[in-house]
Write a structure and sequence with these properties.
The chain has 66 residues and is an all-alpha fold. The protein has one domain. It has 3 helices and no strands.
Amino acid sequence: MRTHAQLIESQTQRLIAEIAARSHHPLEEVREIYEAEFTRLDGQARVKSFLPIFAARSARKILAAH
């Protein structure tokens, strides 16, 4: 049985791969942007459960501007 942390990591990797495929940007570039946005938002967030959604949205906006 997988732990909660493993499930979150698996979901995060799928989310990053989906963003990379749809945006036609390299996976590593998307991962770096996503992780930077997640870290930035994590410092401000009071409710942590929505962080992946907001980090993904922010990463998509940044990639669209490139």
